[in-house]
Specification:
302 residues, alpha+beta, Rossmann fold, 8 helices
């Protein structure tokens, strides 16, 4: 049996993954790699496939897709208790590619494929979050970041209201509708035991530097340092938010008086009304929620 199992999301990148898959196959075969593969057919399928891959004895499980596919594969490895004995590879075919930007995996598919022949190991942290989902407590791992507030509401609008419009139009409509409808909200936040009562626009628990398709939201985040970069954007007005967007793409927004970054291992959030929670661009559930770092929890083959 081959050591490598590829889990391919053909819908990633608004269909880019399906279009590139023949080239990926050709590249891997030309490198004389021995591997098996499966294509996902529904949301959550990559979780099931990754869990089965661990149980079947594969040593490297490769996510072929975007941040959502990576998110599902990691959670499948976790469900099978395989994080300490299976490496994860990534061939990025998603739209944003936020996580691979931080990790340093090439966005060029041919380069990412070639790396699998002689990969180096990179041990990274993971985030663990507990949250409410349909009135029941649930939990999930995440690789890049999790957050509530404005950014999470964009994800909610994109995935629930405008999903059928396609990747880019749904995101743009989600952004516009959130700009119109979103209101900053008061939260009770405990960061490594320190309680604060604040009003936020957005709050992110970041392992990676990027979100939303190359926004450098947490420019100093390091997924190997055992800490979240907790980015707090407080009671920012909508005109100020729009004015500040270019600086968020550049990573220069940290000097804004309403932006604060704290480094922490544990965070809990309470809200008066339920607020959406997203992780790695996936809508998971709602507040109340908590987060903790899992240091050196995943070995990437990069």
């Amino acid at each position: 049996m081959p050591d490598i199992k590829l889990i391919v999301n053909p819908l990633a990148g608004a269909g880019k993954s399906a279009r590139e898959w023949p080239h990926i196959l050709q590249c891997l075969q030309s490198d004389e790699l021995s591997f098996d593969y499966e294509l996902t057919t529904f949301k959550g399928h990559a979780i099931e496939m990754a869990q089965a891959a661990v149980e079947q004895g594969y040593h490297i499980v490769v996510a072929v897709g975007g941040d959502g596919t990576i998110h599902e594969v990691v959670n499948g490895l976790h469900k099978a208790r395989g994080l300490d004995r299976v490496q994860m590879g990534i061939i990025g075919t998603g739209t944003g590619g936020d996580y691979i930007r931080t990790i340093g995996i090439s966005c060029h598919i041919q380069d990412a494929c070639h790396r699998l022949k002689n990969p180096r190991n990179l041990v990274v942290d993971l985030g663990f979050t507990e949250f409410m989902q349909n009135g029941v407590k649930n939990d999930r791992l995440f690789v890049n970041l999790a957050g509530i507030g404005f950014a999470a509401e964009i994800v909610r609008a994109t995935t629930q209201t405008f999903k059928k419009m396609g990747s880019v139009p749904s995101y743009l409509m989600g952004l516009l509708s959130t700009l119109v409808l979103y209101r900053n909200q008061p939260v009770s936040v405990t960061i490594d035991g320190e309680l604060s009562e604040i009003t936020i626009c957005t709050m992110l628990m970041s392992l990676g530097k990027y979100c939303g398709g190359a926004m450098k939201a947490a420019p100093n985040a390091d997924p190997t340092d055992g800490l979240f970069d907790v980015v707090l954007i407080s009671d920012l007005s909508k005109p100020d938010l729009l004015w500040s967007l270019p600086s968020i793409y550049k990573g220069t927004h940290l000097t804004h008086p309403k932006v604060c970054v704290k480094r922490a291992q544990e965070v809990t959030i309470q809200t008066d009304t339920r607020a959406a929670l997203q992780a790695d661009g996936e809508l998971l559930g709602e507040t109340p929620c908590s987060f903790r770092i899992l240091p050196a929890a995943l070995t990437l083959a990069v």
